[in-house]
Amino acid sequence: MTASKPPSGPAIALGEFFLLTAGALILAVNVDLFLAPTDLAPGGVSGLAIILRHQAGWPIGLTMLVLNLPMLVLGFFNLGRLHFLVRTAFVVVVYNLGVDLLAGWLPATGITADPLLNALYGGVVGGIGTGLVYRGSGTPAGTGVASRVLQMRTGIPMGQVYFITDGGVIILAGLVFGWERALYALLALFVWGMTTDYVLEGPSVVRTAFIVTDHPDVVTQAVFRQFGLGVTAWPAQGKFTESQHTVLFCTVNRPDVNGLKAAVRGVDPQAFVVIGHGHQSSGGVVPRARGTSASKDPAQTD
Q1: In angstroms, rounded to a whole number, what is the distance separating the alpha carbons of residues 140 and 44?
Q2: Mean pLDDT for the stretch of residues 85-105
Q3: CA-wise closest residue to 246 among 210, 291, 287, 197
Q4: What is the rounded average pLDDT of the residues 54-68?
Q5: What is the per-residue DSSP string for 192-251?
Q6: Average pLDDT for residues 51-55, to the nearest whole number?
Q7: Which pTM does this prediction carry?
């Protein structure tokens, strides 16, 4: 009997260190180039710091660091203690201090004065930085920590919690900078979230197919013969008619969706086909018959 491997501690692996550092620096550059020059405050601690810079003249990075200290304490006691603290504190220090340190090397007026371009590119660049931090098993702290703790304590859906926290910052920005600037900040926040999801999950290039049929063997053979896709089947019952059917499941590359539906219709016109979205799939490659190539899809079930 071999001893079980001890659980890993809070140490940061080399790959995680690279992702956390790159993400934090990208976030710092984003504030200096796109958000601060045009007073865009798309929620979060960075948005609050930009507002306080305008009102009191405080440096953005140092203000962010001060505002993040209670968030680190809150996260330590509610979101994983040392595992949370080591990674998040590292990101916070590099990100927040990086804003002030890099400001002297970057143009004070940013790249462009167009608020729309700043909102779009601020959202994209910020989303890339945030996505890299999350992929490194870290978090940029800020209102995200408060939102997560609030969600855990109250059960309010995460989307609504973020709307309350980041929405409150944007409303405050509207009162300080004007409502047009707040609308640009809201656009930046939307693009930021979409870009973060893209970095975390990748493009939605895989489609999932559910096929309800009374001729599972014929449909399976047609799908396998044309696309080399493995298929998983399980019995099902139509509750309206009480009839017995079979549900087939497979994944297919996006360009092959129409071909898959045509292949199914060709052998069973009454089959019911539902196509869904998938971001990633892996494992279970099913080879074609001898003399043909293997399936292009890296993840098929059988």
Answers
A1: 10
A2: 92
A3: 210
A4: 94
A5: HHHHHHHHHH----EEEEEEEES-HHHHHHHHHHHH----EEEEEE-TTT--EEEEEEEE
A6: 94
A7: 0.72
